[in-house]
Amino acid sequence: MGKIVIAIDGYSGCGKSSTAKAVAKDLGYTYIDSGAMYRAATLHFLNSYLSPSNPHDVEKGLKDLEIEFHPNPDSGEQETYLNGLNVEKEIRTMRVSENVSNLAKEKEIRKVLVAQQKKLGKSKGVVMDGRDVGSVIFPDAELKVFMTADLETRAYRRQQELLAKGDLVDLEEIQKNLAERDQIDSTREEGPLIKVEDAVEIDTSNLNFAEQVAQIVDLAQQKI
Ligand code: C5P
């Protein structure tokens, strides 16, 4: 049986990461969270007091930026490391969410992360989620999915996710952040969020988690 590349793009907070992770597990594929890399880069710039819109800062910030994924020894799930430190939890905080899209629109930063993402997916049997996976990172992916859901649903789901981690965040604050990120991500010059022609659109507003995973696994099995 041949292995394929699955690209999952879509708006912020529509469950791409958890869905992609479950699809990868089901198929025995590797899951790569491209958004985690932009989040880790954002944390690095914030912690180093560097501005992603200042070219000198960008040069400095990229010089000592090392992002890796390593499996958690208990769950086996991939976790994000920034310069050797596990930052999986910290990159999901509102502090990072509020700054990530402004970093992700910078051309020089995208160039570096996109090159790393292409390398990570060189061998087939990969599910990657993000904003430009089907358009820029893997334009030849055998299966491209574009996930959507209405803003209220997305904000509510994200709130529940944060709550499960012990973070109580106001629904309105989450909704505002998701809308802002969508706006910046869709209108930037470099690798904007778009639905490519050959992507299958899945609106998850009225689907439960198991249903959205099953739909993508089904689509993948038709291609394998
Ligand atoms: O997927 P996630 O919501 O964690 O992504 C965080 C942010 O990273 C997005 O809002 C977007 O600005 C950026 N991103 C990107 N390209 C990707 C993945 C994420 O620009 N492939």
TrEMBL record:
Question: Superkingdom, according to UniProt?
Answer: Bacteria
Q: Which residues form a coiled coil?
A: none
Cross-referenced Pfam families: Cytidylate_kin
Q: Which residues form the Cytidylate kinase domain?
A: 6-221
Q: Which reaction does it catalyse?
A: dCMP + ATP = dCDP + ADP; CMP + ATP = CDP + ADP
Q: Keywords in alphabetical order, please.
A: ATP-binding, Cytoplasm, Kinase, Nucleotide-binding, Transferase
Q: Where does ATP bind?
A: 10-18
Q: What GO molecular function annotations does the UniProt record carry, in alphabetical order?
A: ATP binding; CMP kinase activity; dCMP kinase activity
Q: Which family does it belong to?
A: Belongs to the cytidylate kinase family. Type 1 subfamily.
- What Gene Ontology biological process does one annotation of this record name? pyrimidine nucleotide metabolic process
The cellular component terms of Gene Ontology attached to this UniProt record, alphabetical and capped at eight, are:
cytoplasm
Q: What is this protein called?
A: Cytidylate kinase
* EC number(s) per entry: 2.7.4.25
Catalytic class of the enzyme: transferase
Where in or outside the cell it occurs: the entry states: Cytoplasm
